[in-house]
Automatic annotation (TrEMBL):
Keywords: ATP-binding, Nucleotide-binding, Transport. Residues 7-245 form the ABC transporter domain. GO terms for biological process: D-alanine transmembrane transport; L-alanine transport; L-isoleucine import across plasma membrane; L-valine import across plasma membrane. InterPro entries: AAA+_ATPase, ABC_AA/LPS_Transport, ABC_transporter-like_ATP-bd, BCA_ABC_TP_C, P-loop_NTPase. GO terms for molecular function: ATP binding; ATP hydrolysis activity; L-isoleucine transmembrane transporter activity; L-phenylalanine transmembrane transporter activity; L-valine transmembrane transporter activity. This is Branched-chain amino acid transport system ATP-binding protein. It comes from Desulfacinum hydrothermale DSM 13146.
Length: 256
């Protein structure tokens, strides 16, 4: 039985600084699915995430979420619809404790009345989310004292606090030790077991094969392969994109 699609992107084109960044992207993510976007530096992965969250406006094409057309909506409205993201560079509020950082996510865009109606008090819910991401015992630790791996987990907890149906994770395993990467993989599996739909970016291919149902490979703003991890990771175009054996379309304007 095919699962209903939660996110549907059709014919998406993005232009930044007068240059095409994404071209004719088609992407569907089904309810409960884990999909990874892979591709070399500058492929357009982060830009695609930013278009989904409303940080970047597409030139053309559409984005539907839960059947609703959210194309061009502002970020706060998209977040309230149920899409949350973590950023490549984790930036917790440094002077706030881990629990306070999560509480900001719990308060985001909600009225006090709505917060009071919650079944769990905010402090308790923040502790539950910190436990879920493996930060139990760190509730009172200020953001600045957390390790990189812990800051990434805090980002995930903060994103979960907004109550998403779709979680976008940008490079949560980049720069981590092998053990911390395993923890990140376990975290993604735990989220899946709880029914979360996840779209993740994995430039270094640390997590993809371990956790994804499907991979979508981008290169120079276009989809070059899509399918089960084993198939996509051995696709000739994906191999040559990663090994750099293809002509660059934007060679003249390349800024990375
Ligand atoms: N605001 C912007 N203005 C102009 N060009 C931009 C802007 N943001 C990104 N780009 C360009 O868009 C292209 C895609 O960038 P993007 O960050 O989406 O790639 P990526 O696949 O996420 O790469 P990485 O793995 O290095 O994070 C790059 O060439 C980048 O320089």
């Amino acid at each position: 039985m095919t699962r209903p699609s939660l996110l549907d992107i059709r014919d998406l084109t993005v232009q930044l600084g007068g240059r095409p960044i994404l071209q004719n992207i088609q992407l569907s993510v089904a309810q409960g699915e884990i999909v990874s976007l892979i591709g070399p530096n500058g492929a357009g992965k982060t830009t695609l995430l930013h278009v989904i969250t409303g940080l970047v406006r597409p030139k053309s094409g559409s984005i539907h979420f839960g059947g609703k057309n959210i194309t061009g909506w502002p970020p706060h409205r998209i977040c309230r619809m149920g899409i949350a993201c973590t950023f490549q560079i984790a930036r917790p509020f440094p002077e706030m404790t881990a629990a306070e950082n999560v509480q900001i996510g719990l308060w985001f865009g909600r009225r006090a009345k709505e917060i009071r109606r919650r079944s769990r008090p905010v402090g308790e819910e923040a502790r539950r989310l910190l436990q879920l991401v493996g930060l139990e015992g760190k509730e009172e630790t200020p953001g600045r004292e957390l390790t990189l791996s812990e800051q990434r987990r805090l980002e995930v907890a903060r994103a979960l606090a907004t109550g998403p149906r779709l979680l976008l994770l940008d490079e949560i395993a980049a720069g981590l030790s092998p053990q911390a990467v395993s923890h990140a993989a376990q975290l993604v599996r735990t989220l899946r077991d709880q029914g979360m739909t996840v779209l993740l970016i994995d430039h270094f291919l640390n997590l993809t094969a371990r956790v994804s149902d499907r991979l979508v490979a981008l290169d120079q703003g276009e989809t070059i392969a899509e399918g089960p991890p084993a198939q996509v990771l051995h696709h000739p175009e994906v191999l040559s994109a990663y090994l750099g054996e293809r002509p660059s379309k934007h060679a003249a304007g390349e800024d990375r």
